[in-house]
């Protein structure tokens, strides 16, 4: 394949730029000439200056920009065959053999139709004498690859669409802010979020903010008097001391009969039935705006990389392919299949077949819906006589990670709702040794969802010697039947030790479950830990600012990020910020690397480069540390460029948890409670850690953990993200020689 076109179409979404950058640079890197088709299908129909070659440097500095630099539009003419005929002519004129289309299901429907009609369009162009028969033969097939750009996350074939994570950031920030003003005045707020046929944003933001009620198109309230039910929950909430009431409404919310439920209607209900001062906030286009989240930048980068590989396959010529993500794996699926399933949801909603709509959305959507339904309750279900009531301890261990509180809230509420007695252990293993253990109830975790830090307290204490006796005594005294440890490696190590010593201390013969929470993402049996996404966003935002600060000077930054011996944060933040070099402990640092860097910097700055960015994991190399690198580059850069270091430090651990971390924390906590319920009392009970593996949440037995770990460096032996190094490297390299002059 020699030439491809790339376009963004339909509603814009944050991360589209990162996708364009990735497609352009990966294609150029493989020697494929790339044309930007400006203003989506409109540009394809108009042709002329709207289809232009795009170079390596044209897509520089756009990773952190919202919107799309190549423009997007809605194009009526493309909906008609005559428009598509003109588009086909323009593509052939530019010898474009493949298209990467970044857009929503509408745009991808257009793509599907274009490919189906392709040969007949060429035939018609030949008949009209616009192209020769030889040309028609030469361009007989058009390869098409689609990337789903849509903030709604409404398309089958990918767990996440480009822009959805960022939109959630915007919504969650807004609801967090509204919550504080609502609480001050004891007001009710109705927040309307986007999603005409998809409740993803509404559901996930309700989960992530601890909202009090949510209305989505796929699963309308199953009662005709749902208004009574909603008001009852809100009224009870007030009675037990809740100061704010937030109802999240998806744009397309409807009742069982298919009648729209508008935010205005919800407001009226709250005002008339509860007599509450109620305000509506329609978030609107704020949700589309702003800088893309770290996740959206990296998702787009990975999708763009595979798009360029996929477009060169025979399959893409036969049937458009959708590149998506499942778990952390990039996937390819036939577009027609994905569209069919996507339309299936719309049809199901229209036909009021809500079971079908929910089942098409997938398991994790339904699971989240169930969790939200419990968490929004004002109070737990009453305990029934004779109900099984377990005594479960919840605690942290290791460094603080944003999302720890969210996990505690979910565990406590879901546990209490099932009748269990939830015991909070304060200050990690220190508290378990000292007996600092207190019962937590429904309201004691109110407001925890969005709060950074760790309200229960956490530290890196790992018990030793006589500590075990004290722990055994306290567990016995409190009659603890199972433990949930939310934290990092210190927690896993201690849990393993308790598990090993269960023959010595009968109190230790209980199931333990570890929930991974550390910004470092260095835990075994999970691809992601709670807190890492927030840290990544913290780093990306800081680096964005650092880059801006350098506009007027020729400067190189050496940025040091956390991670201990795990390079995850360094690599993923380098990918999200376009850093040209990343140093991680897994790869080490050699003198030759540094000499090469100096040479690259000198060559780059001599050719007019203005900014250098190097990201370094804190433990990449003890000798060649951040200060050393800075001094070396500074000395060798002479007057050509100066060098600054930025050690980001603890800001990476701070801040309120990102939506993703809140969702992951809640889903994992919910499963952990279920796990403990299943294990407690079993003759062959198991202790385990929970993890996200290949898109699913799974448990791994604690005893299998040691062999998965590189004990010396406290990181897993196998780290899935190590495969991404090559992709990050290609994109951040300087323009290849033949591209140097494309300013
Ligand atoms: P999105 O891609 O965000 O879902 P739209 O539904 O508005 O946005 O679609 C964007 C563009 O894709 C439309 O303006 C039109 O040019 C093209 N398109 C959408 N549906 C079709 C269709 N059925 N046939 C041909 N082109 C279509």
Characterize this entry briefly.
This protein is an alpha/beta fold. The protein has 25 helices and 24 strands. Strands 3-2-1-4-5-10-11 form a seven-stranded mixed β-sheet, with helices on both faces.
Q: Helical element count?
A: 25
Distance between the termini: 25 Å
| Shape-level CATH architecture of the largest domain | 3-Layer(aba) Sandwich
- CATH top level class name of the largest domain: Alpha Beta
Present as ligands are: adenosine-5'-diphosphate
The biggest beta sheet, please?
7 strands, mixed
What structural class do you assign from the helix and strand content? alpha/beta
Q: Please count the beta strands (DSSP E, at least 2 residues each).
A: 24
Which helices and strands occur, and which strands form pairs?
Blueprint: E1 3-9, H1 16-29, E2 33-37, H2 40-46, E3 51-53, H3 81-93, E4 98-103, H4 105-127, H5 133-138, E5 143-148, H6 164-185, E6 188-193, H7 200-209, E7 213-215, H8 226-239, E8 245-250, H9 263-274, E9 278-282, H10 294-310, H11 314-318, E10 321-326, E11 329-334, H12 335-350, H13 354-361, H14 363-375, E12 391-397, H15 404-417, E13 421-425, H16 428-434, E14 437-440, H17 467-477, E15 482-487, H18 489-500, E16 512-516, H19 532-549, E17 555-561, H20 568-577, E18 581-583, H21 591-606, E19 611-617, H22 626-637, E20 642-647, H23 659-679, E21 688-693, E22 696-701, H24 705-708, E23 709-710, E24 715-716, H25 725-732
Parallel strand pairs: 1-2, 1-4, 4-5, 5-10, 6-8, 6-9, 7-8, 12-13, 12-15, 15-16, 16-21, 17-19, 17-20, 18-19
Antiparallel strand pairs: 2-3, 10-11, 13-14, 21-22, 23-24
Adenosine-5'-diphosphate (ADP) binds next to helix 4.
């Amino acid at each position: 394949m020699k030439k491809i076109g790339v376009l963004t179409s339909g509603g814009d979404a944050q991360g589209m730029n990162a996708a364009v950058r990735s497609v352009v640079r990966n294609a150029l890197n493989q020697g494929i000439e790339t044309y930007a088709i400006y203003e989506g299908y409109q540009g394809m129909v108009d042709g002329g200056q709207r289809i232009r070659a795009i170079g390596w440097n044209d897509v520089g500095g756009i990773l952190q920009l919202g919107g799309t630099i190549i423009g997007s539009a809605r194009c009526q003419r493309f909906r008609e065959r005559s428009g598509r005929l003109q588009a086909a002519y323009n593509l052939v004129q530019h010898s474009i053999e493949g298209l990467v289309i970044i857009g929503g299901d509408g745009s991808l429907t257009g793509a599907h139709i274009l490919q189906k009609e392709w040969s007949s369009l060429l035939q018609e162009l030949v008949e009209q004498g616009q192209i020769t028969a030889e040309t028609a033969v030469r361009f007989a097939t058009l390869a098409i690859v689609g990337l789903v750009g849509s903030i709604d996350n409404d398309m089958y074939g990918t767990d996440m669409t480009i822009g959805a994570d960022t939109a959630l950031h915007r919504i969650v920030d807004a609801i967090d802010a509204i919550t504080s003003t609502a609480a001050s005045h004891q007001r009710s707020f109705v927040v309307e979020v986007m999603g005409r046929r998809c409740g993803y944003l509404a559901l996930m933001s309700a989960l992530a903010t601890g909202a009090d009620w949510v209305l989505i198109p796929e699963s309308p309230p199953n009662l005709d008097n749902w208004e009574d039910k909603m008001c009852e929950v809100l009224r009870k909430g007030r009675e037990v001391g809740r100061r704010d009431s937030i109802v999240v409404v998806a744009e397309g919310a409807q009742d069982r009969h298919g009648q729209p439920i508008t935010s205005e209607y919800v407001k009226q209900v709250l005002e008339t039935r509860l007599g509450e001062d109620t305000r509506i906030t329609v978030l609107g286009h704020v949700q589309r705006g702003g800088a893309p989240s770290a996740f959206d930048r990296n998702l787009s980068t990975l999708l763009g990389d595979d798009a360029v590989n996929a477009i060169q396959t025979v399959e893409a010529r036969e049937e458009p392919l959708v590149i998506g993500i499942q778990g952390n794996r990039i996937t390819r699926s036939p577009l027609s299949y994905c569209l069919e399933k996507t339309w299936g949801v719309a049809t199901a909603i229209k036909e009021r077949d809500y079971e079908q709509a929910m089942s098409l959305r997938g398991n994790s959507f339904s699971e989240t819906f169930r969790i939200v339904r419990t968490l929004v309750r004002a109070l737990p279900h009453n305990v029934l006589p004779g109900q099984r009531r377990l005594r479960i301890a919840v605690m942290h261990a290791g460094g603080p990670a944003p999302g720890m509180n969210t996990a505690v809230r979910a565990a406590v509420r879901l546990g209490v709702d099932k009748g269990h007695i939830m015991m909070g252990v304060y200050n990690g293993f220190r508290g378990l040794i000292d007996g600092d253990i207190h019962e937590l109830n429904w309201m004691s975790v109110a407001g925890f969802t969005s709060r950074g830090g760790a309200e229960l307290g956490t530290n890196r204490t790992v018990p030793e010697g006589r500590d075990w006796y004290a722990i055994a005594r306290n567990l016995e005294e409190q009659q603890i039947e199972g433990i949930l440890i939310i934290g990092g490696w210190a927690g896993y190590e201690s849990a393993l030790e308790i598990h090993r010593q269960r023959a010595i201390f009968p109190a230790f013969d209980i199931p333990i479950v570890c929930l991974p929470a550390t910004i470092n993402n260095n835990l075994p049996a999970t691809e992601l830990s709670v807190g890492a996404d927030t840290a990544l966003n913290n780093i990306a935002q800081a680096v964005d600012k650092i880059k801006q600060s350098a506009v007027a000077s020729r400067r190189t930054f050496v940025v040091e990020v956390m991670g201990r011996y795990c390079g995850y944060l360094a690599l993923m933040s380098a990918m999200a910020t376009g850093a040209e070099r990343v140093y991680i402990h897994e790869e080490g640092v050699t003198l030759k690397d540094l000499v090469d860097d100096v040479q690259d910097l000198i060559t780059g700055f001599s050719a007019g480069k203005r900014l250098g960015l190097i990201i370094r994991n804190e433990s990449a190399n003890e000798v060649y540390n951040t200060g050393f690198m800075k001094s070396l580059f500074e000395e060798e850069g002479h007057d050509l460029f100066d060098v600054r270091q930025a050690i980001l430090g603890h800001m990476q651990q701070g801040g309120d948890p990102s939506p993703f971390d809140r969702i992951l924390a809640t889903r994992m906590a919910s499963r952990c409670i279920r796990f403990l319920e299943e294990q407690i009392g079993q003759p062959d009970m198991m202790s385990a850690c929970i993890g996200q593996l290949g898109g699913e949440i799974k448990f791994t037995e604690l005893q299998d953990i040691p062999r998965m770990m590189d004990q010396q460096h406290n990181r897993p032996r196998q780290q899935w993200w190590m495969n991404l190094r090559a992709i990050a490297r290609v994109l951040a390299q300087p323009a290849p020689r033949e591209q140097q002059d494309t300013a």
